[in-house]
Amino acid sequence: MPVSPVIARxxxxxxxxxxxxxxxxxxxxxxxxxxxxxxxxxxxxEGAPADLIAAALLHDIGHITDPEFEAAMAxxxxxxxxxxxxxxxxxxxxANVTEPVRMHVPAKRYLCAVDPDYxxxxxxxxxxxxxxxxxxxxxxxxCAFIAQPxxxxxxxxxxxxxxxxxxxxxxxxxxxxxxxxxxxxxx
Length: 187
Prior knowledge:
Blueprint: H1 5-20, H2 32-45, H3 50-58, H4 61-65, H5 69-74, H6 81-89, H7 95-114, H8 124-132, H9 139-146, H10 151-163, H11 178-184
């Protein structure tokens, strides 16, 4: 039976994550793939729905789709990986996946504004990127962020993202998460 074009494209995304994801995740002690698998594992462990597990798995795909990402970060430039990733995924997934991906950086800025303990828990690399991304939101920006329809989902993805940097955290392999991604596909 022939593979549908949508499944073929999803398989291409997974292949990209499998190969390019072997590169180190910025200044963190894990690879891009380990980071993605850990975020998805944390989402699955919390009983998140398939669309949020897919968003957790693919939230940083913009790092991988942008060949200049790491060099730009080293130069102190923000490449807006959250938008690159959401746009890249938009042909496959609907807003329940793409918007948490797009909003996971603003969610960090929001959490820094409203939770005094949050910033102290960020990794040094995440603090560095926060500064490139505009820092903590002011009160008005924080209120505008949380009023958006996918803000709560983005905050969940953000919290998994923050915890998905442990070089010793065991995860299932990428194929384990394929069924969640298939369930989350745009219909």
